[in-house]
Amino acid sequence: MRSKSIMFLLILFIAAFGGYTALDRVTFIMPQDVESGAACDFTPEDFTASGQLKYSENEAWWTSFTRKEEYLSSFSVALAITFAGYALSKIRQIGAKAATGGVVGGGLIVGLAICFSCLAPVLAAVGIGLFANFGLAMAEIPKWLIAVNSLILTTYGYMYVSRKAASCPVVIRNTSTMPLED
After folding, report:
1. pLDDT tens readout for residues 136-146
2. DSSP codes, the chain
3. Do residues 113 and 146 lie in contact, with contact meaning Cβ atoms separated by under 8 Å?
4. Is residue 53's pLDDT more than 60?
5. Is the pLDDT higher at 114 or at 179?
6. For 88, which of 23, 29, 103, 165 is 20 to 30 Å away at the CA?
């Protein structure tokens, strides 16, 4: 039984990682000039003398994906989605309140990762706006730090859910006032 749940979590992680990466690829817009290329971490050396990008569309996306470290955003999102799936899979052992908390916590981590990713530039402005209130808007938060943060928070969540699942099971009470018939 344990190997089935591990396999489920592994498949969920791979699906979430691949889904984020595919969504990033689908939303990628090929830069037309040096100025728009700078937003995707392209340098003037990546353009020809006539101002065209030297790469094909797939090569341009992959170059931007790796230079902007979007794979770390994929990792953070996949980790948080996997944790939410784990919490939901343990709903009978830990109860609905704790499972809902796990899903909400996973959702908040996904939101944080997306706010600082390239997938949603509008949300990036919102994310930076949130940190502006704390005086952190001037410093760009590196994606590796967000990935480490996601890893620490989800590890703590996994430990909490695992301990709660191993403790006394949640008793489901029959709250109906009608007697049960045989």
Report:
1. 544 567 888 88
2. -HHHHHHHHHHHHHHHHHHHHHHHHHH-----SHHHHHTTT--GGGB-TTS-BSS-HHHHHHHHHHHTTHHHHHHHHHHHHHHHHHHHHTHHHH-HHHHHHHHHHHHHHHHHHHHTSSS-HHHHHHHHHHHHTTT-TTSPPPHHHHHHHHHHHHHHHHHHHHHHHHSSPPPPP----SPPP-
3. yes
4. yes
5. 114
6. 23
Arithmetic mean of pLDDT, 70-79: 90
Contact status, residue 12 vs residue 85, Cβ threshold 8 Å: yes
Q: Are 146 and 112 in contact (CB under 8 A)?
A: yes
Least Cα distance to 27 among 115, 121, 116 occurs for 121
- Contact predicate 89/5, CB 8 Å: yes
Identity of residue 155? T
- 31, two tokens: 């830069």
Query: CA geometry: angle at 25 spanning 127 and 61, to 5°?
Result: 95
Q: Are 94 and 168 in contact (CB under 8 A)?
A: no
Give this prediction's pTM: 0.76
Listed residue (3, 9, 145) closest to 83, CA to CA: 9
